[in-house]
Amino acid sequence: MAFSNKTIVVTGASSGLGEHFARTLAADGAQVVLTARRRSKLEGISDEIIAAGGKALSVEMDVTDASSVEEGFAAIDGRIDVVINNAGISGGGPALRTPPEEFGSVVDTNLKGVFHVARQAALRMQDEGGAIVNIASILGLRVAGGVAAYTASKAAVVQLSKALALEWARYGIRVNALCPGYIETSLNADFFATEAGQNLIRRIPQRRLGQLSDLDAPLRLLCSDEAAYMTGSVIAVDGGHLVSSL
Ligand code: NDP
């Protein structure tokens, strides 16, 4: 299988995209390390992966807390081949109604969290190399109303990915950013059923939301040794949303 003998750490693996990534990569043969704050959710998912014949481990980690990230990585034995920096929060509302502490918590999670995790990953990978995949968003490349903190944090993740790719190429560490468009999950399904949600879908050139499975092939590519010459890349998976007509 594609990722046999690879250890892949996924942050934010207790729900949504991260849970899907962990299940997909475990089915591809990887030993997956699921991390997030909600240990019981992680353990439930790990148990299901193991029951299906996969290899999984749960490690509690709060990405906003550099010590928690360091302790989490210390609890993972052996070589780490790939880290998927997926944990993130939306946060939002119009900028004038965004309290400073909410702006701060979006940046703490989505930007500083990505840095803390990437740094611990690179410390582990610097002798033998590895791959880091940062989950940004199309909102890191274009803006929308009511999500100033989020869009700023994701733009910073795109730029951070390029900066780390530049610094860590000498260690054989590849750093790339994956920018999903709007992906249907249990958390946003209600919104997309509303008229506002349907209007949004009509502005996507492919006229549909992304499904979790739409991310599988690009994610596998960025994790794989077959992408050995890709670093500092930014890949959008969005049904053409970024090229919608102005
Ligand atoms: P979910 O809310 O379903 O999942 C977010 C995950 O992040 C959870 O596992 C949560 O776990 C974890 N998390 C949040 N805060 C922290 C923290 N401080 N420390 C550790 N883990 C944390 O969101 P999605 O699956 O939709 O989003 C996942 C990523 O994909 C995010 O970065 C998001 O910005 C990005 N994205 C999503 C899109 C979408 O359409 N869904 C589109 C583009 C990008 P716990 O609460 O247990 O800690």
Explain what the structure shows:
The structure is a single chain. By secondary structure, the protein is α/β, with parallel strands linked by helices. Helix 3 packs parallel to helix 4. Helix 4 (100-125) links the parallel strand 4 (82-85) and strand 5. It starts with 6 loop residues before the first strand and ends in a 9-residue tail after the last strand. It contains 8 helices and 7 strands; from the N terminus they run E-H-E-H-E-H-E-H-E-H-E-H-H-H-E. It has a 7-stranded parallel β-sheet, sandwiched between helices. Helices cover 41% and strands 16% of the residues. The protein has a single domain, classed as 3-Layer(aba) Sandwich (Rossmann fold), CATH 3.40.50.720. The chain binds NADPH dihydro-nicotinamide-adenine-dinucleotide phosphate. NADPH dihydro-nicotinamide-adenine-dinucleotide phosphate binds at residues 11-18, 36-38, 41, 61-64, 86-89, 109, 135, 137, 180, 182-183, 185, 187.
In short:
This protein has eight helices and seven strands, in the order βαβαβαβαβαβαααβ.
- List the bound ligands: NADPH dihydro-nicotinamide-adenine-dinucleotide phosphate
* Cα Rg: 17 Å
User: What is the average of the pLDDT values?
Assistant: 97
Return the domain count. 1
Indicate the structural class.
alpha/beta
Which band does the percent of strand residues land in? 15-25%
Total DSSP helices: 8
CATH level-3 fold name: Rossmann fold
Oligomer: single chain
CATH class equals: Alpha Beta
Instruction: Compute the separation of the termini in Å.
Output: 43 Å
CATH architecture: 3-Layer(aba) Sandwich
Order of helices and strands: EHEHEHEHEHEHHHE
Number of strands: 7
Lateral strand order in the biggest sheet: 3-2-1-4-5-6-7
